[in-house]
Amino acid sequence: MSAGKKIVIIVAVIVILLSIALSIGEIAVGSLYLRDCPAQRYLPIYLIVAGVFAFCSGGGDGAKIRSRSSNDEGGASSVDICGIIVSIFLFAWLICGSVWVFQLKQCDEDVLTPQTNATDGCFTFDSDYSSKSFYCHKTAYEFAFTDIVIRWVLTALILVFQICAMCL
Fold first, then answer.
1. Do the Cβ atoms of 144 and 47 come closer than 8 Å?
2. Taking all residues of the chain, what is their mean pLDDT, rounded to a whole number?
3. Radius of gyration over every alpha carbon of the chain, rounded to an integer in angstroms
4. Which residues of 142-151 are buried (b: 16+ CB within 10 A; e: fewer)?
5. From 106's CA, which of 5, 51, 99, 139 has a CA 20 to 30 Å away?
6. What is the 3-state secondary structure (H, E, C) of the chain?
7. In angstroms, rounded to a whole number, what is the distance separating the alpha carbons of residues 81 and 87?
8. How far apart are the two ends of the chain, measured CA to CA in Å?
């Protein structure tokens, strides 16, 4: 095995482990704050669904490798096809999550008063407004924001390393 292939394998393992750890965090944060972001009610749901599917697909990678080594015919196995379908779903779900998270903007503090009942497309982390429709728990929002940025970076890394692996 060449040094280039070893590097690609090491980076792939690191990306998979990071993705699995991120998936566990998504499930935990989404579950903890399921009802704590009325400003964007899909945000915790996005985290839970993304975490479950990404975690399950992380476990499927090992099966895919085993099926390739035992499938000498060169055809696509059912595991490969399922993996492609899950990957397409996760990519589409990442786009949805990006829209849901990045469309939110934080309210200017001078807009908010104790009498405020609705805002014009903004939200607040201020727990004084936790019963209002424009509230979102800070941990839920910031985790989702960071998670989506990391997922886009991981997606780009996976694409680059798959291209590099085909070249080696």
1. yes
2. 81
3. 20
4. ebbbebbeeb
5. 51
6. CCHHHHHHHHHHHHHHHHHHHHHHHHHHHHHHCCCCCHHHCHHHHHHHHHHHHHHHHHHHHHHHHHHHHHCCCCCCCHHHHHHHHHHHHHHHHHHHHHHHHHCCEECCHHHCCCCCCCCCCEEECCHHHCCCCCECCHHHHHHHHHHHHHHHHHHHHHHHHHHHHHHC
7. 10
8. 10
- Name 27's Cβ contacts closer than 8 Å, sequence gap at least 6: 47, 48, 51, 52, 55
Query: Residue 22 and residue 20: Cα distance in Å, rounded?
Result: 5
List the structure tokens of 120.
Answer: 């014009």
What tokens were used for 110? 């001078």
Q: Which of 117, 98, 92 is nearest to 107 (CA)?
A: 117
Model pLDDT for residues 104-136, shown as the tens digit of each residue? 888 877 767 666 666 666 788 888 878 888 888
pTM: 0.79
Distance CA 65, CA 77 (A): 11
Task: Assign 63 a pLDDT band (cuts: 50, 70, 90).
Answer: very low
- Whole-angstrom distance, CA of residue 52 vs CA of residue 90: 10
The strand pair at 122-123 and 105-106 is best described as: parallel
pLDDT of residue 69: 43
